[in-house]
Amino acid sequence: MSSESSFDQLVDVINSSADIPKLYANEVTGALSPVDITLLLFQNDRSIASLNIPLGVAKKIQRMLGEMLTEFEKVSETTVKSSRELSDKFKGSSE
To answer: Would the pTM count as exceeding 0.90?
Structure first.
């Protein structure tokens, strides 16, 4: 299955259920416990949601995100910068 058809299928699932919260976050922070990770999602410096996940799920998400970002960078021939990298760049340009 191509990543485009996977994306389309995922969007169809999301759009077909009113029960799935739809969030947009442009920053994240997290905390680690011995059994899980808590992520706090932000939108424009305002906390909007928290997500608690077991370490095994966190590991799966880490792998999935790494694979997706690697594929994006390969196809687009660009490097995705982190929020911190972008923020540091903008702070440096205003000095």
So the answer is: no
